[in-house]
Design goal:
single chain, alpha+beta, 3 domains, nine-stranded antiparallel sheet, eight-stranded mixed sheet, DUF8094 domain-containing protein, transmembrane helix, DUF8094, transmembrane, membrane
């Protein structure tokens, strides 16, 4: 019976080991599923459609091959389509019938000549179109969630969710690379291979033990019994000759066979020890194996999908904005150090550009004038993008550099005019120390933009700057004084103190007049959770100094380095005028609220100084 059990264990062990090895060899599924497409034609851009990216489950490995430079980026499908605009492009999609990749060419849209000859606004539209068309290389666009580049070949592995497309190009001038291959890692793990191999090894050991026990039992059963009756004594036989010594390799006894058989499980177990440590060979009973892969971009939170399903997406994600601000910070530092106006103009616009250009002009004449506060790129402690699918787009962020206390907390308003232009700093403020930013929607949802003439706020955004300017001029006599919170408004205190100091330093032979008015820049407003709004506006302040006596002269104060640098005068009998540009950030509550308008931040800078005509 022991021999029967041993043989059965050997057979079952052999079957289990063979099945375990087969699962890792001839029965093993392929590790990757791949589809390829070759794009024909001369299109400068190729778009990989979400349907092609979702042809198989799991992460997508994208391999693009061509001659020369290769650029690959991914972004929202709407943003990719907006960047391409009316240019011709190829689309790599998935055929529902064949399950293979297909490529189609979409021809460029040519404007109707009759529309271009109508005059009026057509010339402006044509100029905008020409400016956008001049940007042909998609590399470096702020629309992309991430981008990759290389020469002749680019390979990257991503986990892209629905609604994300991939754009492929060379340099925007040469045709896009033709060879595109998509691969997906398939689950070819064999969780029962390990148990089969291990179980087979254990059965092999058990069979060997049974076999040895059977041999031992057989030897014992053949020994003479102790109580056997003695028979007649036989005569002693002659001693047989001693046999020659034999080598160990010639032994064919059962004991030798047993030793050889014992070697076999040792070899098998050693092989299992070397190959069975892989997690793919064993079943995973933990809950971690049910988790899904995290998408590479996170344009929308899964917790807010249902709530935000009908809302436009945010203009940027936090990761996008971090990259944008890092690039702007580095560019600004270089431009500030070298007084490079052309470089600065690529990332600044509006009052923020005007104020910095004036500082460059002043420092070019008088290097003793200090530069403006450096713009840090991180960390972003507050992000509020606009909810929109169109352009222009705006986003607000707050940067607080905890490592350098000398740099104040900065609030930045960025604007993107069109898909092919990058975000530019439109407003740049230093936040008030006591400023309390009201609650807003999370960055993954964004906030709708408020129209400049919106009447549902305590004051429409386009009337805010004029009302505040009137307060600076008239003080408590202004009709708008009661609408604004005066406590904590350091800008009003600063302006009043500076004006008082200038009046005190003025000689009796001169007079000074102060004025303030709303700036020409468009107000930017984003909604808050309480139906209020965060509003950015600009304002201009002017001071005019004139002599009051005939033959008298006036000039900038001795410490007015910026005024001297801009005006180029020391004394004049005509007088001179200084113009300051103010950038103001307010919280405006909803109409009918008992709360007041609160100043959150401001920036002021001299932009012009000239002799009066």
């Amino acid at each position: 019976m022991r021999f029967v059990l041993a043989i059965a264990a050997f057979v079952l062990a052999a079957v289990m080991i063979v099945l375990g090895i087969a699962q890792r060899t001839i029965l093993l599924e392929p590790a990757f599923t791949s589809l390829s497409s070759t794009v024909t034609g001369t299109a400068k851009y190729t778009v990989i459609d979400p349907s092609a990216l979702a042809a198989s489950s799991g992460s997508q490995t994208i391999n693009v091959r061509g001659d020369g430079p290769i650029f690959v980026a991914y972004g929202r499908s709407e943003d990719v389509a907006a960047w391409i605009g009316d240019d011709s492009f190829a689309t790599v999609g998935l055929s529902e019938k064949t399950g293979e990749l297909t490529s189609t060419i979409t021809a460029a849209v040519t404007p109707d000549d009759s529309e271009g000859a109508t005059g009026g606004g057509a010339g402006t539209d044509a100029a905008t179109t020409d400016a956008a068309a001049a940007i042909m290389n998609p590399a470096g666009s702020d629309l992309w969630l991430d981008e990759y580049s290389g020469t002749n070949s680019v390979t990257t592995t991503l986990t892209l969710p629905e609604g994300i497309s991939v754009i492929v190009a060379s340099d925007g001038i040469e045709p896009a690379p033709a060879s595109i291959r998509l691969s997906w890692a398939s689950d070819n793990s064999t969780p029962w291979a390990g148990p089969l191999l291990a179980g087979g090894a254990l059965l092999l050991l058990a069979g060997l033990v049974l076999y040895l026990l059977a041999l031992l039992h057989l030897r014992r059963s053949r020994r003479p019994r102790r109580n056997v009756p003695r028979g007649p004594r036989m005569p002693r036989l002659p001693r047989a000759p001693r046999p020659k010594a034999i080598k160990a390799s010639q032994i064919t006894s059962r004991r030798g066979i047993a030793r050889r058989v014992a070697i076999l499980p040792i070899i098998v177990v050693s092989g299992l020890a070397l190959s069975g440590c892989s997690a793919d060979l064993w079943p995973d009973f933990s809950t971690a194996n049910t988790a899904t892969a995290t998408p590479t971009p996170t344009p929308q939170s899964t917790d807010s999908v249902e709530a935000a399903a009908e809302l436009p997406p945010p203009a940027v994600t936090v990761s996008q904005l971090e990259t944008i601000m890092s690039e702007i910070s580095l560019l600004t530092a270089d431009a500030d150090a070298n007084l490079n106006t052309e470089t600065l103009a690529t990332r600044f616009t509006g009052p923020a550009l005007e104020q910095r250009l004036a500082n460059y002009k002043i420092r070019a004449v008088d290097p003793a004038v200090a530069p403006l506060v450096a713009l840090a790129g991180a960390p972003l402690t507050f992000t509020l993008p606009q909810q929109t699918n169109s352009w222009p787009r705006v986003v607000m962020t707050v940067i607080q550099d905890e490592n350098d206390p000398s740099i104040p907390t900065m609030a930045v308003i960025l604007k993107q005019e069109s898909p092919r232009t990058n975000y530019q700093v439109d407003y740049l403020f230093a936040l008030e120390q006591s400023a309390h930013v009201p609650k807003v929607a999370p960055a993954i949802v964004g906030a709708p933009a408020i129209a400049p003439d919106n009447k549902l706020l305590l004051l429409p955004p386009d009337e805010l700057a004029a009302a505040y300017a009137d307060i600076l001029v008239q003080g408590e006599a202004s009709p708008s004084f009661g609408l604004f919170e005066s406590e904590g408004d350091n800008f009003r205190v600063q302006v009043a103190d500076l004006n008082a100091a200038k009046i005190a330093a003025l000689p009796s032979t001169a007079s000074i007049e102060f004025a303030a008015a709303a700036g020409s820049d468009e107000a930017v407003a984003l909604a808050t959770n309480d139906s209020g709004s965060i509003v950015a506006v600009s304002m201009t302040e002017t001071e005019t100094v004139k002599p009051v006596d005939a033959g008298a002269t006036v000039g900038p104060a001795a410490d007015a380095l910026a005024t001297k640098a801009l005006s180029g005068i020391t004394t004049t009998a005509k007088g001179f005028s200084n113009t300051y540009r103010d950038q103001l950030l307010f919280y405006v509550p909803t109409a009918g609220s008992s709360d007041k308008i609160v100043l959150l931040g401001f920036a002021q800078g001299l932009i012009t100084s000239a002799e009066l005509p």
